[in-house]
Structure formats: structure tokens, C-alpha cells
């Protein structure tokens, strides 16, 4: 087989997938599989650091591609979205199916989980309908052995008609054999004859009637049998994809259109609808997978999954599931809060030491004083606050969160909360996106990609801001400690702060559910969709991989966006604080204008102005507020919480002010980074504005009710 642009799928890849591969001697390999099969581990183990991550063009689905060399050949591995099926119920399924069908990879590796092979075989059988260049990777063989599961790989290969390789990707076992099998399939050295699922006499007859005509019309550019099945079941997303790929509609052909019409009429005569045709196809695939599973999988019943079952009986029980979940999150938050203090102080000290050197540098080149103030006291100082406050908590929270994910606990969180989200007419996976929002709401919005339904994805996106991100933790903690704990110091402060943050989280979750229900009954009407929630086996976490994923994919990604938004904000804040009319700064003028409405909310004009100027990043709200109260021209921070408490009390604060401050912190517009992310994810200014207005209106109403209620009761 010659290694040309056509044989390596270069033209197709550029045209339909957006994967830009320039070398003509590269072998394209697709990596498919169910979620939680260790597919990402296989990908990372094969490609190492030679990876690139982005979005599929025009879609909010992540794609990753990487490279590896084997026997002096360069292989490009395209990691497809994890999916349970190719029947186009979700964007992930559509992307995976389109790439395998139209990208024409030299080989497609289907990663399966040895601990639940039968369920994974459904996807294997569907992919083998599209292409005969398939390698089945049975991963997690070590876990299967631990659970007393035995798999006859040779028998499985004989039944499927394609090479089967057993691996334990975490330890690297079997990866060399996998590379060899990929090479054999890609270069035709391994002959494959994939098993074809039988769909019954009636449907098979219908497929044969149209298959030949499709082959003539398509000229071999698509799999005729697979296309015939999609046309007969009326799979609209894939039919549209087929038409886009071919450049014309198959049903424009008179003969094919007539054959399809006759077949559908015959089905209707037997009382068979297109939905029943689809059900019949799915049923046949499932039964075939079950039959294969019975022949190749054996169990040692004494060892099989007993430990996982015992753990799940506690972690997902109605009695202990929710309390344990809250306790675990509390531990994560406490570690984040307590652990971030020292590195945050050290980072701030280092960054502000650099600030002093920048002033010296600008003075040495005789730069005007106002230039130094704008660039250093304005732009740089704002960036320093954002980095010193955001980076340490994220660097702690995201690895801890990823650790729970790697252990297999996060799907249990979704399981525990699924009932409540269903009651709110929202998607159960929203629980996972909400948890991600605790670290950063921008990351939570990106995580909404895992929700298949566009309507429910929007609900999750709009409501993600109701859970406090790490940028709002310092504000919530400060308010709790100085007005509740009395600034007693030490570990007690951290414990009190943790309890207050947990209370804020519970309130945020409650508001999320309430607003989700309101949205589903008004502008986003609909019923909650069903979804498959797989509880993966508990696994030993990979610490190195956790650190890399959390630092590069989450922490630095989010921090980069925050810095890009905060830099111009520093300029605006400095200008407003240092530009005066009538002896009063623009910042003070703005505060006076907002003061009547702010006091009705239980705040004051300076607090509301600080929130507005803190739009780029919630971390700078408190420094702006202190700067306003002290009438300084640059952002400052007091040496202790006691000093901050005294400053606030001197400016008329009561515990009601602090409570309303916390309420508005929990419920107000998303930060600039999150809104930017919402715009990129939804590709819509309409939903971006709605995402801004919904939490803001909610926060205003809650503050008004709290403030006016306290005044009516005489306790404010």
C-alpha cells in the first residue's frame, strides 16, 4: 500500500475534521471507546507529550491528537470523544462516527474495559460495520484479574474477526503488542474479516435491496451496508453528514428513492415504524454482544466486584451518600483554604517585590510618573493580585478534584444528585459540571460539554455561576471570619470558614436546582433526557498524570484567560481612582450614584462599585473596596483581618452588610473570564447575556429580601 496523501487520509482530515497533518507519510489511527475504559491512558501512554488538544471545528466537543513512532514510521493518533454508541444521540457520537466513516483512518483502535467487556462490545460491533481496519484493545486486564474476571482473548479475536490485544495501559503492559497490531492492520499484513451483525430476514432483505444501488451512487466513498441501515432507520444526523460528505443527497436518485419508499411502505404494512426499525437494530447488536460475552468472559464469583459493591453500598446509599459527599467536599475545601495561605503569601511577596523593581526600572529610564503608575500600580498590580490569589487555590483544588475523578468517585456524586436534578428538569451530569465550578466557573462551563442535550447544556451553563469559585472563596472566608468567628485566629478560623463555605455551597446548590427548574419551565422548556450513568470501578490514581492534567489542562488554562481579562481592568481601575472632577474621583462619583439602590440591597455604593470594577476577576473586589474606603489611588491590602474588620465597621458595616455581601458574592454576574468562556462555548451573545442577567437578578432579589427582612424585624 503506497503512503500517499489519500492513503493517509490527508485530504479528508483537512476537509472534515480540522486535523491539520502535513506530512504525507503519516499513518492516521483513530482511538475510540466507551467513557471510563482507560482510553485517555492508552492515548497518553502511546503519545507521551507529543499531543495537541482543541475543539472539533464548529463543535463544543474536545479533540486530542498525538504522535508516536514505531518501526521508523510516524503514527498520528486521533483520540475520539468517549461514547457508548454511534447512533448519533449526542454530539460526541456524531463526531466519532463521522471521523471513522469519512476520515478513513488507516486503523481504528477500539478501547474496551476488561471488567465490563460485554457492554463495550456494542460499540465494537458498530464500528466494525463501518470499517474492517479495526483493532480491539481490551484494557484494564490487571483490574479484571483482581476482580476474578478471565477473558479468552484468542477466542474473542476469532469471533470478531479482528486482532484483539490485552493491555494494562497504566503500567504499559501490552502496548508494544498493540502497536504491532495497529501496524499489521494499517499495512494489510493482518487480514481482517469483521463479524457482521444479523438483523433478521426482513431487515437484511431490505438492506440488500438498497445496498448495491448506494454502492454505485457513492462510488465506494462510504460503507454501503452501513449507509443502508442509516437510511432505513431514519438516522437524520448521520444522513445529513453523508450528504455533506458526498456533496449530494442519495435520495435524489429516482431508483433509490423508489426502493426506500417501497420498503418503508412494506414495513408500515407490517406495523413497523422507523423507531421500531431502530430498536430492532440496537436489539440485534446487544444480543450479539451478549452472545460473544458469554463465550469469552469467565468469572471467579468469590472475587468478582465484591469490594466495589461494598464501597458503593455506602457511598451511593440514600442514608450516607449525601453526607459523605458533603464531608469529602468539605475536606477538599478545607485543604484548599488552609493550604493556599502560605503559597499565596509567598507568591504575593515575590510578585510585589518585582513591582518595586519595575518602578526602579521605569525611574532609571526617566519614564513619566503617570506612565509608571498606570503600568505598574494599575495593570501589573491587578495582575499580581489575580495571580497570587487564584493560582495557589487552583493548584491545590484542581489536583484534589482530579484525584476524586481518577479514583472513580465523581460519577457517584452525579448518581447521588441525579434524582434532585431530574426533579428540577435538568440533567444529572450537571452535578459534575457544578462540582467543577467550585474550582473555577469558566472550567465548569467548559465541562458542560459532557451534557448531550443542547437545552440541558444551556441550563447547566447559565446556572454554573451559582456555586462559588475559588476567586470568591477569599471574600466568603473573610466575611465569615471577621463577622462570625471574631477573628480568633489559627485553625479555628479555617474550620469556621470551611463551615461557612459549605453553607454557601448548600445554598448555591439549592438555588441552582430552583433556577434550573424555572428555566426548564420558561425559556428552556422541556423534559429531562435520560442518560447512561456508568459507575466505573475504583482505581488506584496516577499521581503524575493527575498533576499534569490539573496543572496544564485546567489551572494554567483558566489562569491564562483570567490574566487576559484582568490586565485591561487594571488600567480602567487606576484611571477611575486617579481621575477627579470637583476634587472627587470617578470611582467615588460612581459609588455615590449607586449608593441609594445599594443601601436598599443592604450594601453601600462602594461595595457595589467594587463588584462592578471587579468584573474581570472576583479576586480584586476586596482590594478595590479597601482602596475606595481608604481613598487611595491604587489597590491595597490590610495586614490583618482585624484591621479589615475595623475599616469596614468604621464605614458603617453591620453583620447584615456582611451577610448581604456574601449573598451578592454568591449570586451576581459571572466574571469576565467565565462570560468569555460562555460566549465561546455557546457561540451566542443572547445566552451570554442571559447567563449574566439570571444570577445578577437572583442576587439583587435575595439581598433586598435579606436586608429589608432584617430591618422589618429590627435586627439589622
Question: Overview of this structure, please?
Answer:
The chain has 716 residues and is an alpha/beta fold. It has three domains: 10-186, P-loop containing nucleotide triphosphate hydrolases (Rossmann fold); 201-272, no CATH class; 321-713, no CATH class. Helix content is 64%, strand content 8%. It is built from 29 helices and eleven strands. The protein has helices spanning 10-17, 39-47, 91-103, 117-130, 141-146, 153-160, 175-186, 201-218, 224-233, 236-246, 254-269, 274-296, 306-315, 321-364, 369-407, 410-423, 430-439, 441-447, 454-463, 473-485, 490-521, 543-578, 586-600, 605-613, 621-629, 641-650, 655-666, 672-682, 685-713, and strands at 26-33, 51-55, 62-70, 73-79, 107-113, 134-139, 149-151, 164-166, 297-299, 580-581, 584-585. The strands form three sheets. The chain has a seven-stranded mixed beta sheet with strand order 2-3-4-1-5-6-8, sandwiched between helices. α23 (586-600) crosses α24. The longest helix has 44 residues, at 321-364. The chain is elongated.
Please state the average pLDDT score.
Answer: 82
Give the tally of structural domains: 3
Structural class: alpha/beta
Estimate the helix proportion, in percent.
55-70%
Quick structural gist:
With 716 residues, this protein is an alpha/beta fold.
Question: Secondary-structure blueprint of this entry?
Answer:
Elements: H1 10-17, E1 26-33, H2 39-47, E2 51-55, E3 62-70, E4 73-79, H3 91-103, E5 107-113, H4 117-130, E6 134-139, H5 141-146, E7 149-151, H6 153-160, E8 164-166, H7 175-186, H8 201-218, H9 224-233, H10 236-246, H11 254-269, H12 274-296, E9 297-299, H13 306-315, H14 321-364, H15 369-407, H16 410-423, H17 430-439, H18 441-447, H19 454-463, H20 473-485, H21 490-521, H22 543-578, E10 580-581, E11 584-585, H23 586-600, H24 605-613, H25 621-629, H26 641-650, H27 655-666, H28 672-682, H29 685-713
